[in-house]
Write a structure and sequence with these properties.
It contains 13 helices and twelve strands. By secondary structure, it is an alpha/beta fold. α7 packs across α10 and α10 packs across α11.
Length: 351
């Protein structure tokens, strides 16, 4: 098999069932986005297992993505290149006998382990002089505005045009897991609607102010809703502020395990989020989601899945990076929530 000229459409028939490895960006939202790619690959090669390289943080997502066989957990440092760790990862990957690897990041080190594993076909965009590490080189990434368009381009054989529409990401949580989770957390679904809040975000200006979330929680609790505050350890302080403002109907469900937030979002009736990974999870589950955007463009960064409402700061800005979520008022968010849950006394049953 000639590893320098092999294309996804030219696989040796003996390797027609060889697994595919996807090396994604290690961000929650990108793990959800890449499920569109998983589905496209499965349509083309239904007999080829698909694995994702993952961090410990993102690994729980993979249990809920149909079509993903497993995750290969490797918590590699972001700003270092410990060759011993990459060499060990390469040996782990070699044992899986992958036929193809799609390397989403443009960095040199993202392609190193697939190269060390001698995966026959390693597809990626040109970048950082990695012409030896990547043997199925693609060009034109900078002409693609959205991250998902870049992902799909890598999953499309060179002699074909990318599809005009993409499958929507799907996160599927079983009903029995929701019921067990509610029981373990001493929660129950009642006539009161449940609004999940995800106040965390990565990057300046992307997080709606904590005092706004606190005021929203107080209003919702006063109108007969339960509020679940979701996030990681970094959101503990914000969660305490929200709970204090909202009272007994507001619950701090932040923690170390992303699985907790995934199941909570599947059980909730509505979610209010920043432009964050939990926004993508909520949308892919199908939970009605009110998303607050500031210095990022919904056109570029919103999920493929539909959102109930996209709220942006009013006014014109010379640079979108100058926008802040602080320009979105509590009244606007409250109105979007009310329009999505027009009858506060009626809650959806767990999916």
């Amino acid at each position: 098999m000639n590893s320098n000229s092999q294309d996804l459409t030219d696989l040796d028939p003996a390797r027609a069932d060889s697994p595919i490895l996807i090396v994604p960006y290690m961000w929650i939202g990108d793990f959800v986005r890449v499920h569109s790619v998983v589905q496209l690959l499965k349509m083309r090669w239904p007999n080829r297992p698909i694995d994702l390289l993952t961090s410990t943080l993102c690994a729980p997502i993979l249990d809920y993505l149909p079509g993903v066989r497993k995750g290969i957990v490797a918590d590699l440092p972001r700003r270092q290149l410990p060759f011993r760790q990459y060499s060990a990862l390469g040996k782990r990957l070699a044992r899986e006998r992958y036929g193809s690897a799609l390397v989403m990041p443009r960095t040199w080190k993202a392609a190193l382990a697939p190269y060390l594993a001698a995966i026959p076909q390693r597809t990626g965009f040109a970048g950082e002089f990695r012409f030896v590490l990547i043997n199925d080189m693609r060009f034109g990434e900078r002409r693609l505005e959205r991250m998902i368009d870049c992902f799909v381009a890598l999953a499309t054989p060179k002699n074909e045009s990318p599809p005009e529409t993409y499958p929507l990401p799907r996160i599927e949580v079983r009903r029995d897991e929701i019921e067990n989770w509610l029981s373990r957390n001493a929660l129950r679904k009642s006539a009161r609607p449940v609004v999940a809040m995800a106040p965390g975000a990565v990057g300046p200006g992307k997080a709606w102010p904590p005092q706004n979330y606190a005021e929203l929680a107080r209003e919702l609790a006063g109108q007969g809703a339960d509020v679940w505050v979701l996030g990681g350890p970094a959101e503990k302080t914000i969660a305490a502020q929200i709970v204090q403002a909202g009272g007994a109907s507001v619950y701090d469900l932040t923690g170390n395990d992303l699985r907790n937030a995934i199941v909570a979002l599947a059980a909730a009736d509505l979610a209010v989020t920043n432009d964050s990974g939990l926004m993508h999870i909520s949308a892919a589950i199908g939970t009605p989601t009110v998303a607050i955007f500031g210095p990022t463009s919904p056109r570029l960064w919103a999920p493929l899945n539909p959102l109930s409402a996209i709220l942006e700061p009013p006014g014109r800005f010379d640079n979108i990076k100058d926008r802040s979520t602080a320009g979105v008022t509590v009244d606007r968010v409250l109105d979007a929530v009310r329009r999505t849950l027009p009858n506060p006394s009626t809650a959806a049953s767990p999916r």
